[in-house]
Amino acid sequence: xxxxxxxxxxxxxxxxxxxxxxxxxxxxxxxxxxxxxxxxxxxxxxxxxxxxxxxxxxxxxxxxxxxxxxxxxxxxxxxxxxxxxxxxxxxxxxxxxxxxxxxxxxxxxxxxxxxxxxxxxxxxxxxxxxxxxxxxxxxxxxxxxxxxxxxxxxxxxxxxxxxxxxxxxxxxxxxxxxxxxxxxxxxxxxxxxxxxxxxxxxxxxxxxxxxxxxxxxxxxxxxxxxxxxxxxxxxxxxxxxxxxxxxxxxxxxxxxxxxxxxxxxxxxxxxxxxxxxxxxxxxxxxxxxxxxxxxxxxxxxxxxxxxxxxxx
Amino acid sequence: xxxxxxxxxxxxxxxxxxxxxxxxxxxxxxxxxxxxxxxxxxxxxxxxxxxxxxxxxxxxxxxxxxxxxxxxxxxxxxxxxxxxxxxxxxxxxxxxxxxxxxxxxxxxxxxxxxxxxxxxxxxxxxxxxxxxxxxxxxxxxxxxxxxxxxxxxxxxxxxxxxxxxxxxxxxxxxxxxxxxxxxxxxxxxxxxxxxxxxxxxxxxxxxxxxxxxxxxxxxxxxxxxxxxxxxxxxxxxxxxxxxxxxxxxxxxxxxxxxxxxxxxxxxxxxxxxxxxxxxxxxxxxxxxxxxxxxxxxxxxxxxxxxxxxxxx
Lengths: 312, 312
Known about the structure:
homodimer, alpha/beta, Nucleotidyltransferase, domain 5, 2 domains, 5-stranded mixed beta sheet
């Protein structure tokens, strides 16, 4: 194993890049803008330039660098083929790993979906460290996920494994999810979903609540829960009911050792956890009771860690 | 790789045993009774005797036999430890693989859960042959499952992966599932579940239906569906709605290449498939649409095939 690796996390506005030692030590991280114009034609070239420049600066040759891992916002299969990436304005199906490797003089490149790669990062050096099987649940604007079994990412047949935000949870939902379906988990368990539940609760009665004075954000809901606000607690119960049920189903299917909860919503702290675990324990198969839950610790860096781990 | 292996499938009334060539050819199969008295104390000894006798009869030595795989009706972890097996009257937690190996003069033994092992059998030489990732769905008295990723069984942290019959599907179910929970998938998608749905439908109205003359079995329901009976079709729609939704969730999580539908209910033939796939396609994440569905072909022999594959 060579001494260094790069981990890349490509987002719609910026590309995060990390230079790592092979033991998981982050040597340096920086970011470059994501140029989405011209269908994002220059994105991979910009990344290659940044890496080659850093190698020159640090006097690293191919003999020092094991390879480059890259996490992308789209479905990526086990061979590194991406099928469209809306946020990057990529419309084509092509092999990202091969193309980037070509721009890097043949350096080894592996590609994965960003949520899956973040899960691998938490499993490597984050709060999932030491566990062989885990499911990462990212509660942000949407709900993302990553599934690790036997220490490896489960990509799925079309790179769509871990799309837990789109598990069907409610036959009666009238609102459409961004994916086009109705009643997806992320319609209740994301930051947006929490605000949707809140607005329904506020509209349903004149009940007094601190939420009538606060901004309608997920964070404000959790603050109100901590203040003991009854309406906010009902919102949290609904959030926890959907998410706890959804994660119980995942446990029935793959029985992971631990769930790692990340994303913006998780930053509200341990207040959110009992709402999830109570409903999880209620519905899960008895042999899966007591599955561990923890919060992610790598935050936005999970992606670059996991990407580096792809090649290490 | 040595030339032969044994595959064992332990049930509550009989133990099926198969002698296989390492290419998957079944040389001979037979069965012995399962002695559950005295907490099933003699089961492993009976199996060992049967194997050693067959090796003597066939003049096979340890140099000819790669090992013995065994599928058991209980949660078995990756190390071969079983945590109780109600149907065998086993109350203890112990390492089945080690104990059976000890009775076989140190021959290699691997153990797995019977539903998982049957899935491996279908993946090896059955209708899942050639697929790297599949989910087997066994629709019998209950609903069992087995998950194969990268050609290997996913056992789960406590050996409970693939317990898809106990995915929580309905908050409003009043009847308790055998597992103690309420609203599990097998309450709607098993043979028993189909009969439960039927009886609700029959009690809800005086509507004319051939089911009022037929026996109340799942098979009779499917026969009536083929005759175009409206009430039976409504029963099938409910069955398909729960099962299609459940399998769509599994696809969102692990995105298998193919679902293999087995068990007694599947013997009613292709009439059941559209009820499942229609609902699957409606709810699954778009990148998982078009996931293949097929019926199992190994029937009751899936367990011995998969067990042999554990050691091959």
